[in-house]
Amino acid sequence: MQQHRHLGAQEDSDRGLGLLHWSTNALALVSIAVKAIHAHCLQFQQPSPEVSVLLNDLPENDFNTVVKSLVTLRQSNDPVVVTGITPGSFYERLFTSESVHLVCSSNSLHWLSKAPEDLKRNLIPAYDIDEHSRRERLPIVLEAYAKQYRKDFTLFLELRAKELVSGGRMIISLLGRRSDIIVTKFPFLPEIVAQILCVMVSEGCDRQRKV
């Protein structure tokens, strides 16, 4: 969204809002953004712009609930709210150049584009059933994931920079931890998942070769 002096300008007569990795909670965020735009226009006695809401998620995800939510969103706002869905990975181009004013990404950027190459290079499996081996390899695994994340996050920012208008904004929320926290004292997410998988295997819920 642009600064106040730009909201009424003719060249900015519509607003593009891009939501990456759709969830049911995202509808609330979209509604807040749309209401804020309309409230601003009322305050400065300007006509409300048409708003385009563009949602993104992976193609294999179920879009039925999304479509129903979009119908509700379009019917509950006046003036016009135009909605659209862009299937695909957010590690590739999603929107046209300089077309989006606000990008929102909530709890999705912890997903990497692929498994870290350093794990394959060091012959480290994605999941190691042996706890002792896991702990010995932990520094290598952490660095491998950090390296891949830096690469992916940089790519994400470069792609979104091409799609945002000049002066556009981006809101990102994601999981994280402090780098100076001792991992052995404070379990982090992969370790918790590993413990859950071990319990599932021991209880016969899954086969070791599958995990």
TrEMBL record:
Keyword Magnesium among record annotations: yes
Biological classification of the source: Eukaryota, Viridiplantae, Streptophyta, Embryophyta, Tracheophyta
Keywords annotated in UniProt: Magnesium, Metal-binding
InterPro entries noted in UniProt: MeTrfase_7, MeTrfase_capping, SAM-dependent_MTases_sf
Keyword Magnesium: yes
Entry GO MF terms: metal ion binding; methyltransferase activity
Taxonomy, superkingdom: Eukaryota
SUPFAM superfamilies: S-adenosyl-L-methionine-dependent methyltransferases (SSF53335)
Name the UniProt record assigns to this protein: Uncharacterized protein
Organism: Aegilops tauschii subsp. strangulata (Goatgrass)
PANTHER family to which the protein is assigned, alphabetical: S-ADENOSYL-L-METHIONINE:CARBOXYL METHYLTRANSFERASE FAMILY PROTEIN
Transmembrane region(s): none
Signal peptide segment: none
Pfam families (UniProt xref): Methyltransf_7 (PF03492)
